[in-house]
Every structure is written in structure tokens, then in C-alpha cells.
Amino acid sequence: MATIFDVLVAGEINPDLILSGDVEPSFGQVEKLVDSADLTIGSSSAIFSCGAARLGLKTAFIGKCGDDVFGRFMLEAMKKRNVNIENVIIVPGGSTGLSVILNRGVDRAILTHLGLIPALQAEDIPDGLLRQSRHLHVASYFLQEALQSGLPGLFARAHSFGLTTSLDTNYDPSDKWQGFDDLLSQTNLFLPNEAEACSLARAETAELAADRLSEKVETLAVKMGAEGALGVDKHRKARVAAMPVEVVDTVGAGDSFNAGFIYGYLQGWPIEKSLRAAVICGALSTRAAGGTTAQAELSEVLPILGD
User: Fold this and answer.
1) Taking a C-beta distance cutoff of 8 angstroms, is the pair 63, 10 a contact?
2) If we measure between CA atoms, which residue out of 225, 284, 293 comes closest to residue 16?
3) 159/139 Cα distance (integer angstroms)
4) Strands, E, within the chain: which ranges?
5) Exposure string (b/e) for 84-98, b if CB count within 10 Å is 16 or more?
6) How far apart are CA 133 and CA 147, in angstroms?
7) Cα 262 from chain centroid?
8) Lowest-pLDDT range, 141-145, 192-196, 234-238, 269-273?
9) Which of 117, 133, 147, 267 is the most exposed place for a label (fewest CB within 10 A)?
10) In 3-state terms, what secondary structure has residue 290?
């Protein structure tokens, strides 16, 4: 079967309601005013998908949502951004998830209604779809509970069809950070942020975490915010500085970073070049509110990247 998609994303679907302003909520029926409210594409998986598509990667998405206002909003928005949604599973009577984000520029608080976010299972992803793809990405391990137990097998199945695989865990609400030995051995590319890497590796520094985690995966890229990024593969360790930018909203910056890195990875770029592309994509995505509004096009990234 011919390869159609550069990237297949097995992910969660939910919009973000972003409330922006320098306020902190209080109980006791205290009403506070925000500067703006925007309903935008949410979920790490969907934001990543839009970023990958914007860079020119042919991107397909499989996940579950309801036939409701939030589900229809998300599918229409992803389709408009050239993400293939033909394999999304619409659950009759199901409830699409929602995240409410209080954004204060460089920091944010998030409340999430899970809905169908945890519902996708490994067996929902058919062999035929894998065979049409080059790479499989999973972006929200801890929220996708029904996928967790079957994910090592899914990654192994993807490898058997010639795909490479990537994983971004995002935050563990239980703070246990367990169950990764089998999964990381099936993961080509691991994309945690600094706090996640340190938690998983039981390490005090990103460098020590990178040393420990790089023994388990082919390629590691650690997002470090204002400190840039750290990467390790079988050839070398690389460190890249952050790109200065006037930050409007950091929502989805890590997912745009992932899109930039995976673009470089699929092009066969050396790790330092892929890291620089990732940092550029992550930084440029913070120029406007919402995770997808300011995502970079390849024509913006390449001149900054150079060589």
C-alpha cells in the first residue's frame, strides 16, 4: 500500500477556551474580569498536527470526539489547517473534552473536562492506516488512559510496517511517572520537557535526565523553555539556545517545538539542526493567542535556521 501520510497522530481532541489577563480566580462567588476570551484549537495532539501540516508534512489524525459543538468546531478547524480527519471516530452521544485556560503570558492555569479524551484504544488504529504512514506520534500519554496499555504493542506494530515512532508524555496528574520501560524501548523519538524528563529519570538536572533517558530511546529532545533545548542521539549530544521573541501566549509552544523537531527528523537532519528548527517553531508559535494562530510556516523557519 502506498505511503500517503508523513505523520499519523493518535491523539486526543478538545478545544481550548483561553481567558487572558493578569488575574487569579477566587472562590466565594468573586467575579474578576479578563482582557479577552478565545475558543481555539486545543489538545497537544491537534496543535501538533496543525503545526506539522503548516510545515508541509502530510498529516493524518485519529482520535475520538462527540457529535457536539466542541467536536464539530475541532474537526472543522483541523480540516481547515490541512489535517486529514477522515479517520476520526465520532461517538454518538459522546462528549468532546474541553480545557479552560487562564493565560497570564508566561504562565497559565488549566482546567480540563476529559470527555472522550481518554477513549482512544490501540485497537482502534487499523493496520491499513499505519501502512499508509511514515511516522506515528502520540502526544498526551497520561490523558489517553485507554491507549496506555496497548501503546508498546501499537508502536511495535508500527515498526513492523516500517514507521518510526515518537512520544511526548505531557504532565502526569498522578505525579507517579511510571510504566515506561516497555514503551520507551519501542520509541524512536522522545520529546519531554525538562520537568517531565527529570521526573521520569528521577534526576535533578536536565543533563542527568538526558543521559539516563537517552539509553532507552534512539533520539531524545528535551524542551527547556527560556534555556532552549537539549538533544541526544547515537551520534552526539547537542544544546541549542532559546530564540528571543515577544511572548503573547505560550499555549501549544511545546507541541509546535515537536512539529519542528519531527520535521527535521524525517528529513534526516542532524540533531542540532532539528533542535534549532524546533526551538524556532516553538518560539514563533507564542506570537499570538492560541496554540495554532501563529504557528510557523517552513518559509519562515528556513531563513532563520540558515545553512
Assistant:
1) yes
2) 293
3) 18
4) 5-10, 15-20, 36-41, 59-62, 64-66, 83-84, 89-91, 98-103, 108-113, 133-138, 164-167, 189-190, 219-223, 229-233, 237-240
5) bbebbebbeebbbbb
6) 19
7) 11
8) 234-238
9) 267
10) coil
The model's pTM is: 0.93
- Tell me how far CA of residue 103 lies from CA of 25, 68, 138, 192, 283, in angstroms: 12, 26, 25, 22, 17
CATH of 5-21+37-296, one of 1.10.8.60, 1.10.443.10, 3.40.1190.20, 3.40.1670.10: 3.40.1190.20
- d(C-alpha 137, C-alpha 116), whole Å: 19
Place of cell 499519523: 8
Question: Average pLDDT in the 198-220 region?
Answer: 94
Express each pLDDT in 104-152 by its tens digit: 866 778 898 999 999 999 999 999 999 999 999 999 999 999 999 999 9
Cα(114)–Cα(96) distance, integer angstroms? 8
CA Rg, the chain, in Å?
18
* pLDDT 10s digits, 214-228: 999 999 999 999 999
Question: Which set of grid coordinates corresponds to residue 284?
Answer: 514563533
Sequence ranges of the domains in the chain:
5-21+37-296
pLDDT digits (tens, 9 = 90+) for 9-25: 999 999 999 898 999 89
Three-state DSSP at 29 gives: coil
CA 255 to chain centre: 4
**Continuous segment of H or E residues that includes residue 288:** none
228 backbone φψ class: left, alpha, beta (φ>0; ψ -120 to 50): left
Count Cα neighbours of 81 within 13 Å in the Cβ-side half-sphere: 28
